[in-house]
Amino acid sequence: MIKKQLIMEKALELFAIQGIEATPIQQITDYCGISKGAFYLAFKSKDELIIALIDHFMIQIISDIDYTVKNTQNKQELLFSFFQTTFQSFHTHANFAKIFMKEQSHSFNKELINKMRHYDRLMDEIILSLIEQIYGDRVIDTKYDLIYTIKGLMNSYSAFFILNKGPIDIDLLSQSLAEKTNLIATNTTTPFISKEMMEIFKLSNNDENSKEQISEILLQKIEELDESTEKESLILLNQHVLETSLHPAIVQGLLKNIQNHPHCKGIAYILSNYFMQDGGINVSSCFS
Predict the structure, then answer these.
(1) Which of 136, 154, 187 corresponds to the end of one domain?
(2) What is the percent of the chain where pLDDT is above 90?
(3) Is this structure's pTM higher than 0.85?
């Protein structure tokens, strides 16, 4: 067995028994029957090992679900097939799923958090594709709420599935969740989460937003607004994002111009964080 694979498999067994934080590298190497030096030839740190485990299992889980969504021809069976594949994959990778469900409070570093966010965004895209294939324009206003509805069902029943030691009928569970999802999708008329909110969530959770990404969402917002003080402020802020041409006091004033507009609050928040990180401009007073 390749040493890297051996370390991952044995570490996963230990993590499942006693948790990530409670498992030191020395215990992993002892369990593998290798030296610490051999461990560090394979992984620079325990965090790097955890990232490797996340990549290894999440790629398999995401790939299985994505394949099902893209290749199930019968749309009436698609919801059932989606849930069936999801929970079958959780069953196959039970130790991995159990670890990360039990240790949500683990103090992951920034790289680990970003890794999990990456896979969470991939899952959002797959679920959105699923929803659009099944319901099309019938849920155009509520499809983003449905993403969180489906993820909520997945998370809740995954906890029951993973932590329950008794046998579970995956087909019956999948049928039940498909029925629940369909009832919500066909009867919900009041949307809460919009496309704009999804974009804001995506940018807010990304600690490495580029100026091009910020500019893109600004340009979209500029196109949506009629001529107004807010629109002119957004144009100037976009220029500043791309060229850093304005005095901090002017940036603060422009942010104040947009912060109370119902369609600009999100971008105002994103911009304030971006300017703080990029140039150290203190814009917190705009939101006091």
Answers:
(1) 187
(2) 43
(3) no
